[in-house]
Amino acid sequence: MTKKATKSQKSASASASARNPTKVADGKMVLKIKSTENMKKAATKQGRPKSVAKPKTVPKKKAAKIDAKKPKKPPTAFFYFLEDFRKEFQEQNPDVKSMRDIGKACGEKWKTMTYEEKVQYYDIATEKRAEFDRAMADYIKRKESGEDQQSEESEFDE
């Protein structure tokens, strides 16, 4: 029983023979290495351009000025949990110093917690988020009215 070679087998065997070094009459294997000059000559003979012009990189946009008076976003419930968990975990495992290990343990614990256990952290997070929303609304009002800009200009005029 003879099997017919599939296309993938034929191409694999053809590419394998192309990679194989040539044999000399002595039975030794010899590798033929093409120089880069010969490769360049061959490329120009085939009509390919020597090099394609690379587009110039566009400079990155400068980050917008960070406003020190703008309120920062509050952490999520997970980060409030992380604060408590880190303290407990370090007391129980004083030999573990790696933040990576602490973070992994915290993530596993958070995944296994029920909603009732997480509620206290969600409550803290929603309170902080409400404070942030109020502070942001005040900040936007001040910015629109121009109060912030006037105070900044007066600081630098001195």
From TrEMBL:
Residues 1-70 are annotated as: Disordered. One of its GO terms (biological process) is chromatin organization. Signal peptide: none annotated. Keywords: DNA-binding, Nucleus. It is found in: Nucleus. Residues 71-140 bind DNA. Residues 71-140 form the HMG box domain. It holds the Pfam family HMG_box. GO terms for molecular function: chromatin binding; DNA binding; structural constituent of chromatin. Its main location: nucleus. GO terms for cellular component: chromatin; nucleus. Residues 8-18 have a biased composition (Low complexity). PANTHER family: HIGH MOBILITY GROUP B PROTEIN 14 (PTHR46261:SF12), HIGH MOBILITY GROUP B PROTEIN 4-RELATED (PTHR46261). This is HMG box domain-containing protein. It comes from Nyssa sinensis.
